[in-house]
Amino acid sequence: MNYNKINSTCVFSSPVEADDTLVRTGTPTSSVLSSFFTCFIQALNKKFILIDNEKERHEIINEFHQSICDKITTNIDNSKEIHQNIFLLLKDCYIYFTLDEIKNDDVNKIIKTISNTDIKKNIYKIITEILPIENFVKILRNTNLKVDKKYSLYNYKKVCMREIINYLQYQEIFDSIDKKKVDFIYDCTLSLIDIIIDTIDCKYKIEPISDSLSDDIIKATEDYCDSNIIFMDYNTRLPFLWRNSSFKNRKSIILMTYDNKHFEVVGKLLNNNKIQREFLSYDSLIKSILIYFNSTNTNVDKEENKEDKKDVEEDDDDDKKDVKEDKKEDKKEDKKNEDEKNEEDEKKDSQQNDNIEENEKKCEHGEKDVEENQNKDVKVNKKTNFNIEKNTRKPSVKKIKIKKSSK
């Protein structure tokens, strides 16, 4: 097989590349999982490509590997045995703290890790008094009721620690103790439940040293990266999905596989020699791959089509709702305008009525004034007529005697 050197990139062709230029980047050849996990680190961490130090690269790969393995556990709600083992191991630890008796090898390992000095042993003895075993078990059971069915023991542990802190902070004994000592008691209590759950967890999860690619590893990696994993066969250069995997509407990372024994991350060459290794569902390359899946009757593509159809139907429903709401708003607006118009008309009518009444009143006053004036005129006329009659008499003319002149 023609593997690329780690972090070196070369161009290759594929039937689904469309107008894109595809490249693949080399990964370690030391193990299957190293090459597999390195693909995701290269896709998610752009600085990783620039790291030349092999030891530093190896640490990053192992850390990512451990993160994935921490996610792979039995569902806590589906296994009474797991909880029973946690309760029993906790009780055995309490027996050691109170009676100095070691029940089994697991307790012996825990004691050597967290209670390797007399001071710590005394602290744990105090913890058994502050947090009796009955109350501790009750906290664990309450935690089991609060977490989701799909939670791993890793998440269960975080919720449990929070419940323990909530319990301890209300204990009155801490009011009279120095803050540093209180913090130390908190840390010791959390360390105890941390190592107990980890001890049980290791019995149910895949060990980091495993070098086999499984369904659990694939699913945990998809969930951890929140991405679809699309594989591309080295010989045919055609894409495919891992068994039991389903294509979801989220980002995708594409891996070139050499018979599932070695993997290299696939990218798309962009301008200025930049490389894109994460692809959204509407990317041209992903669209081309989905067309191929659809032509080969891939089941996941049907699910995706259903999702798309559902989205379209939801959009149509939303549009219909918007139209209905708009119509309702228009009706409300029309009614409001009509009410305002009616109110204005009523005001105008009322004002007109007031004006008419006022005019009628004025008319009434005017008629009275006219009558009064007519009456006055009549009286005046009578007086005037009388005077006229008086004045129409013949005036009395005095006879003037004219003396004749004596000439």
What this model shows, in words?
This protein has 407 residues and is of the alpha+beta class. The chain folds into three domains: 9-71 and 208-297, Cathepsin B, Chain A (Alpha-Beta Complex), CATH 3.90.70; 76-201, no CATH class; 298-370. The chain has eleven helices and seven strands. The chain has helices at residues 32-44, 54-71, 80-99, 105-114, 118-130, 133-146, 153-168, 179-201, 215-225, 284-295, 299-391, and strands spanning 9-12, 22-25, 227-233, 239-241, 251-257, 263-269, 275-276. Strands 1, 2, 3, 4, 5, 6 and 7 form a seven-stranded mixed sheet that branches. β5 and β6 form a beta hairpin. The chain is flat, with a radius of gyration of 50 Å. The protein starts with 8 loop residues before the first strand and ends in a 16-residue tail after the last helix. Mean pLDDT is 77; it is low at 301-312 and 377-407.
- Round the mean pLDDT to the nearest integer and report it: 77
Major beta sheet summary:
7 strands, mixed
Proper CATH architecture of the largest domain: Alpha-Beta Complex
Task: Please tell me the total number of domains.
Answer: 3
Total E-strand runs: 7
Rounded to the nearest angstrom, the distance between the terminal CA atoms is: 188 Å
Gross morphology is flat
Count of DSSP-assigned helices: 11
Task: Give me a quick take on this structure.
The protein has 407 residues and is α+β, with helices and mostly antiparallel strands. The chain folds into 3 domains: 9-71 and 208-297, Cathepsin B, Chain A; 76-201, no CATH class; 298-370. The protein contains 11 helices and 7 strands.
